[in-house]
Write a structure and sequence with these properties.
Blueprint: H1 6-19, H2 22-28, H3 34-43, H4 46-55, H5 58-65, H6 70-79, H7 82-91, H8 94-102, H9 106-114, H10 118-127, H11 135-138, E1 145-147, H12 152-162, E2 171-175, E3 181-186, H13 187-192, H14 199-202, E4 210-211, H15 216-226, E5 230-234, E6 240-245, H16 246-264, H17 278-305, H18 307-312, H19 315-344, H20 349-382, H21 385-415, H22 425-446
Parallel strand pairs: 1-2, 4-5
Antiparallel strand pairs: 2-3, 5-6
């Protein structure tokens, strides 16, 4: 049977909402995922949205809210009774709840946390102590840990009790009496083991864990390198305090990529989307652009220094935008490669040297090919061999310089513990504009008597 799209099934959903029959409504949405419910909610009118909230059970509502952005979450919580709000907050995953609480005022935050169960409240308060974008802020306490003295049969019995509230059971973490992490058992290993086998005999003692203060990008890198679906989080004494699951890491990867993209385009670190007001969007973009405006004035002063050269050979002005544009483009390309490499790899000295050597070769190859091409164009257009040589040599030199600038600047920033993405595309382009004009007019001045 062909699967219906949400748009096709929406009329049936609206019909069941109007009849207000909970059992009929549950039959319609029985196989929907939380993301689907969130999309359905957004397609409904205000009245229908309220009806939807009434007919969803608590688990469905909590799951649906976790697929929504902060403003919608707050809007929905405002429609719920105090008692139901407490239930929903307790059902939400810790990491998603921490993100929601981060956006609230201290009074609202305390009010919601006080309504949670004692254990969940204690865990959330502890999570909120860790800095944003660290392992401690994206971990969850909904995992299965096993005392070291358990047998396989005892583990299975515990799983039956806790499986409904855990985020994943792919890995079971073994702890000692002080709750220090000493081993891990895969679900597959548990199934294949004998029922009376001791858990310490089948566990793996070499466990990859991350400290609570580890940067979320480092956590993502480890999960990607080892193909984990979850990773344990420990405090300094190796005490197990939580786990991070791969679905949360996917959110981190998207978030970090979005941040890098905005930085590389010289926009604010804050999100600018389709709903952002024009004044807010302009405010977030202006600081970088004003800085680049003043840096760009240097380009004008450089041109003024070579007025005599430009006046004698007006044809040089024709190739000036092309020289500057090509240099900026090649610098931005190298920047994108380096920022991506710094995000996915640990850069050691040998790798940096290989990278610099490769980008230098890339710059030479691109420069020579483009330089020869533009030399021929300049020669046939003006019938002046020396003009062709000036433009060609300038382009070769500026493309090499532009490529190396786009490579070296982010590497230096990374070495200084500064986010390399701040070497944004517009910044690299502006710097390369200045360098290209100096090189271009410098070479042209040297050949001035020939052209």
């Amino acid at each position: 049977m062909k699967t219906q799209t949400l748009e096709q099934i929406l009329p049936d959903i609206k019909k069941t909402l109007q009849t207000n029959h909970a059992s009929e409504f549950q039959l319609v949405i029985d196989e929907f995922q939380p993301y689907d419910l969130a999309r359905i909610h957004n397609l409904l009118s205000d009245i229908e949205q309220n009806q939807l909230l009434e007919l969803l059970n608590d688990e469905q509502l909590a799951d649906m809210m976790q697929e929504m952005d902060y403003p919608l979450q707050i809007e929905i919580l405002a429609k719920l009774s105090k008692d139901r709000t407490t239930v929903i907050i307790n059902l939400m995953d810790n990491d998603d709840l921490a993100i929601l609480l981060e956006e609230l005022s201290p009074e609202q935050k305390d009010a919601l946390i006080r309504g949670m169960s004692a254990e969940e409240s204690r865990f959330i308060r502890n999570m909120m102590k860790y800095p944003p974008e660290t392992a401690g802020r994206i971990m969850t306490n909904r995992y299965v840990w096993i005392p070291q003295h358990y047998t396989v049969t005892e583990v299975v019995q515990k799983l039956k009790t806790y499986v409904s509230i855990t985020e994943t059971i792919n890995y079971l973490y073994v702890v000692d009496d002080d709750k220090q992490l000493i081993g891990v058992v895969s679900f597959r290993g548990l199934i294949l083991a004998e029922p009376d086998a001791a858990i310490v005999d089948i566990m793996h003692t070499r466990v990859h864990a991350v400290p609570v203060d580890a940067d979320q990008e480092e956590v993502a890198r480890i999960i990607q390198q080892y193909d984990f679906v979850a990773i344990p989080v420990v405090e300094q004494d190796n005490k197990l305090v939580g786990i991070i699951t791969v679905d949360d890491i996917l959110d981190v990867v998207i978030q970090e990529a979005d941040e890098d993209f905005r930085k590389m385009n010289a926009t604010s670190g804050k999100t600018i989307d389709f709903n952002t007001k024009a004044t807010v969007a302009a405010y977030r973009r202006l600081p970088w652009l004003i800085l680049l405006l003043f840096i760009g004035l240097i380009s004008g002063s450089i041109i003024s220094q070579f007025e005599e050269t430009l006046a004698q050979v007006v044809a040089l002005a024709f190739f000036m935008p092309m020289i500057a544009g090509m240099t900026g483009n090649t610098g931005t390309q190298s920047l994108a490669v380096i920022v991506r490499g710094l995000t996915t790899k640990q850069m050691d000295k040998s790798l940096v040297y290989r990278l610099l050597a490769r980008e230098l070769k890339v710059g030479v190859i691109i420069g020579v090919v483009c330089g020869i091409l533009i030399s021929l164009i300049a020669y046939f257009w003006q019938g002046n061999l020396y003009l062709g040589l000036v433009v060609g040599i300038s382009l070769i030199a500026t493309l090499i310089v532009g490529t190396m600038a786009g490579t070296i600047i982010p590497l230096v920033l990374s070495r200084l513990k500064v986010d390399p993405a701040v070497a944004s595309g517009p910044l690299i382009t502006t710097i390369n504009d200045i360098l290209s004009l100096v090189i271009y007019f410098g070479i042209a001045t040297l050949f001035l008597s020939y052209i």
